[in-house]
Structure formats: C-alpha cells, structure tokens
Write a structure and sequence with these properties.
The protein contains ten helices and two strands, in the order ααααααββαααα. The protein is mainly α. It has one domain. Strand 1 and strand 2 form a beta hairpin.
C-alpha cells in the first residue's frame, strides 16, 4: 500500500508541474530531486569505500554547490557553452580540496567519484527543464516519463509472476528476460496511449499533447527510451551491489531512495535529448 500511495503522490506532483507549472518551478523541482539523489550517492559511495577498507572524502558542500551550479547554467539566459567551463572549474575545486585534505592514495578516486556523481545525477536532470521548454515540451516530457514508468511497472509485475530466465544476475538477481520483454511492451503500449490521446485532443483543437512526428517514429522512440531506462536501472544496481546495499536510501516509503526512483530517467533523459539533436541535425522533423 505504501508503494502505491507514494507512486500516486509522485505521479500527481509530476503531472501538476508539467501542465500547470512554470519553467522556474520545473527547474527548482528537478534541482531538488538532484540534490536529494546526489546526497544518497555520497552515502552509497562512502559505504562502498568502507566495504573495501578505504574512506571517501567528497564534501557534501561541494556536491550541493556543484549540483546547484549545473542548474544555474542550464537556465535559458546562459549559453550552452558555459556548462563545460563550469564543470571543469568544479572539478578543479574538488581536486584541490582533496589534494590538500585526503590521503594521497585517495586523491584520485575521491575526485573521480565526485565528478562521476555530478555527471551521472545532476547533468541528466538539468535536461528536464530544457526538454519542457521545447515546442510541445510538456507532451515531450510526459512521453518520456510514461515510457519509463510503464516499462518499470510492467517489468516489476510480469517479472515477479512469470520471470524464469535471469537477465543479469551479477548486477540484479531479480531481473528476468520475461520482465525485460514485458517492459518494452509496457512502454510501447503507454506511448501508444499518449499518442492516441494527443491525436484525439488535437482534432478538437486542444494542442496540450500535440505530437508532430509519425506514429512509427514515436513508437521507435519509446522502444529506445525503454532500452535506455532498463540499462540505467541495471547500472544503478551495479553501484548498489558494489556498495553492498539493497536500496539507495529510504526517502520514499515503499520505493527505497530517490536514486532508486530516478535511475532509469538518468539515462533515458540524455538519450531523448541526443535523439532530438540528431533529428534536428539531419532535418528529420520535431517531436
């Protein structure tokens, strides 16, 4: 019951932001999620380091400031070219801090893990406001979320009921090929529902869920996003197993940690961004 109630609250909050929120609200919400997930990452990294007889010295203040900085330079008034210099500066700050405070043997791993956490968690979430402010942005972000969520739900319940063949037991013993196939089917079905609803609304003059691209392209995109989401889920499982923990945290009742809920999105969002860039570069039309 906790899992269902938490999911309903999260879905309501996301839908409210997508269709009634402003750009600054979307940005603040994504930044808050990134800060919470980054905090969980620090805890995971620290536990993993202790498990292997080492210590981790990524300061919380650095991760918080670095995460916020990426969101600040992702707002419309900043040029895209500003992101790389900011990331470089943040890396040098962490490098210098660790160089003077960490044991010498830890300088490289501490700096590398801090930068990895920033690029893995914060950067993908900065793309959510950027996607939302595109033409037909709310429909685009909804399509992303629904493709990820539906695939996750289908994999969970079908995998539990019918899963027999392990997908990647070293990374996630509970995931099966049956669940994987169900996940793809779930994403395609949900994407088809969004497309059908969007078309129905468009014929009535409501452009809220307007999608311009052909149906087959949207379904291919849903399959690509599903593959990215499943890979993102597996990779987060690899991090957790390396740290010897089951969940990234306990922030969300019935769901584990924040990082557990957004792991699929952390890979699916950049993939969607890159697909849009490729379509734009080759003149293949917009979403």
């Amino acid at each position: 019951m906790k899992r269902i109630l938490t999911a309903l609250v999260l879905i309501f909050a996301v839908f409210a932001l997508l269709f009634f929120g402003k750009l600054w609200m979307i940005t603040v919400a994504a930044a808050l999620v990134a800060e919470l997930a980054a905090y969980e990452f620090l805890q995971l990294a620290a536990v993993g380091a202790r498990l292997h007889g080492a210590s981790l010295r990524i300061p919380l203040w650095w991760m918080s400031v670095a995460t916020a900085s990426l969101f600040l330079v992702s707002i419309p008034n900043f040029p895209v070219e500003a992101q790389l210099p900011v990331i470089s500066l943040l890396t040098l700050v962490l490098f210098a801090w660790n160089g003077f405070r960490s044991p010498l043997v830890q300088v490289l791993p501490d700096t590398a893990q801090g930068l990895f956490g920033l690029l893995w968690i914060a950067y993908p979430l900065t793309l959510i406001p950027l996607l939302w402010k595109q033409e037909d942005g709310p429909a685009l972000v909804l399509f992303l979320m629904v493709s990820v969520w539906a695939g996750d739900i289908a994999a969970l319940y079908v995998g539990r009921a019918f899963g027999r063949h392990k997908l990647a037991p070293r990374l996630s013993p509970g995931k099966t090929w049956e669940g994987t196939v169900a996940s793809v089917a779930g994403s395609l079905t949900a994407a088809g529902g969004v497309i059908a609803l969007g078309n129905a609304l468009t014929t009535r003059g409501d452009m809220l869920l307007h999608i311009s691209e052909p149906v087959w392209q949207s379904l291919v995109l849903a399959a690509i996003l599903n593959a990215a989401a499943q890979l993102g889920d597996l990779l987060e499982s690899a991090v957790k197993r390396g740290a010897g923990v089951k969940d990234s945290g306990s922030m969300l009742p019935g769901h584990g940690g924040m990082l557990d809920r957004i792991d699929a999105l952390l890979l699916a969002a950049p993939v969607l961004w890159y697909v849009l860039l490729v379509k734009d570069y080759f003149g293949l039309g917009r979403f």
